[in-house]
Structures are given as structure tokens and as C-alpha cells.
Amino acid sequence: MRARGPRRLPRRSERFASLIRIDTINGRAAEEIALSARFDDLAAAFASERFRLGSEDPTIKAIEWLTPFGKGSRVTIVGAPRAGKSEALRRLALALAGQPGLQLLVALAGVRPEELSTWSQQAPEPAVAVSFAASPDAQGHAVERVIDQARRLVTRGADVAVLIDTLAWLAPHAARKVLAAARRLVDGGSLTVIATAREQVGGETTVIALDPQLTSIRRFPALDLVASGTIRPELLVGEAGAQAIARARAEAMEA
User: Fold this and answer.
1) CA dist., res. 253 & res. 57, Å (int)
2) What's the pLDDT at 143?
3) Are 97 and 152 contacting, i.e. CB atoms less than 8 angstroms apart?
């Protein structure tokens, strides 16, 4: 697939230039392709192109190798309060900001006011940001706006990742709708959704579970390997990699 359009210079925390918009896809006008089919009607497939994060952070390294995800994955970072979900998402944002050809959108909904400032200083600037003082409806609308923007980009052939902190205050059906938007389109773009939540939402292809006890004593990586997992990991890391993950999970259950 060849996508063409004007580019912009890398922003803070980014290593590569990004497309401002996509004008043509394989020589066809992007608008023509976008209007030719509804997003939900387009054929989807499991993620098979893994994100290589290249981070030296111990938790991010553990996530990359033991709970792999790729373009089109549906990911939740789950755990009890103070398990480190928001911090893990911020560090993933920094790692993903350097991925060539990936458009990154961040939605903050229901976070602490202090975290709004922290994101702007340490990670890609959020597309929307509302604190926990906003109503669940306001939080849901904010996240939906970003997801709608991402869907439009994906139908034009782009690879987009939406990072959301958090789905915790959304109604269950609203949270599932947001997560369900993630997919890899056959012969097209991809939408990856990575969101924090108190517990699994349902429909995930990857669950990253954090252990609050390990986080509290600063023992990293703070990954709960028994509760974590990826559907069809062999598509991302091959059969040998999938077997290595299974062995690590078995050892964790025996410990």
C-alpha cells in the first residue's frame, strides 16, 4: 500500500516525520476510498505486524515480549488503583511516538488534573483531555471524537494508534464500543486501541495486567503474567515465540 500526502516535521518525543493528511492511496483519491465503504463493513483480520517498542524500561520490555501487540490490536492495561496503569500507558506512548508511519492520538478522560499537565510535559500532546470532574457522558463524548477521527484516517489507509486513559468511568457498553473500533483492515489501514481500565472490558486481543503489590514496592516489571495474555500470539511472534510465552506463563503459575 502506498499512501501519499504532505508531511510535517517530527514533534517533541517523535523521531520521524508524519503525514498531515492522506491525499492518495495506491494512486486513488483518499476521499474516494473513504466513501466507498463503511468502516464497520470493511473486512478485518487479526493483528500480524508486531510493534517493536525498543524501550529499555523494564515494564515496557516485559510488555513487548510477554504480551505482544501489533497494528490493529485491542489492548487494555488493567489493574487495581495505584497499579501503575497511567504510567505504563505514558511510557508506551513515548515508545510508540517513534514508530515510522504511525499516527498517534491520545485521549485523556477521567484522569486527575495533575496528570493532564504530566502528559503534556512527558508524552505526546493529548488530542482531548478532560478530568474526572467531567460527567461520564462528557468523558465518553470526548473519547468518541478521537475514535471517529481515527476511523476516518484508517479508511484512507493510515495506521493509527489511539491511547486512552481511562475507560474506567465509561458505561460498560460505551467502553466496549470504543475498544471494538480497533482492527486491522484487509488490504488497508489499521486502528490500534490501547486503554487503561480497572478490569477487562471484553473483546480484547491483548490484556496487560499490572500487579499493585509489585508496583508498591517498586519491583519492576510489575506485570501479572498469569492474568495477562495475547490472543493468537503466533501471528505476532511466531510459533517459537508463542511457545516461549506459554512456558513463561506456566512458570509464573507454578511460582
Assistant:
1) 24
2) 94
3) no
- What are the tens digits of pLDDT across the range 105-163? 999 998 888 887 777 676 688 888 888 888 888 898 999 999 999 998 998 889 999 99
Q: Is 167 inside any structural domain?
A: yes
DSSP designation for 41:
G
3-state DSSP assignment of residue 7: strand
Is residue 113 situated within a structural domain?
yes
User: What's the pTM value of the predicted model, to 2 decimals?
Assistant: 0.83
Q: Is residue 197 part of a domain?
A: yes
Cβ atoms within 10 Å of 152's Cβ, excluding its own: 14
User: Is residue 154, in this structure, part of any structural domain at all?
Assistant: yes
Distance, CA of 192 to CA of 29 (rounded, Å): 24
3-class secondary structure, 209: strand
Average pLDDT over residues 15-35: 62
Residue of 140, 97, 98, 93 lying closest to 119 (CA atoms): 93
Q: Residue 244 and residue 237: Cα distance in Å, rounded?
A: 10
Q: In terms of Cα–Cα distance, which of 206, 198, 255, 209 is closest to 235? A: 206
What's the domain range around 110? 45-254
Q: How many structural domains does the chain have?
A: 1
Q: What pLDDT does 35 receive?
A: 47
C-alpha span between 61 and 122 (Å, rounded): 19
Q: Average pLDDT of 10-25?
A: 67
Which residues is 223 bridged to in the sheet? 210
From the list 90, 86, 121, 118, the residue with the least C-alpha distance to 104 is 90
DSSP state letters, 51-103: -------HHHHHHHHHS--BTT-EEEEE-STTSSHHHHHHHHHHHHTT-TTEE
Q: Where are the alpha helices (DSSP H) in 110-233?
A: 113-122, 136-155, 172-180, 212-216
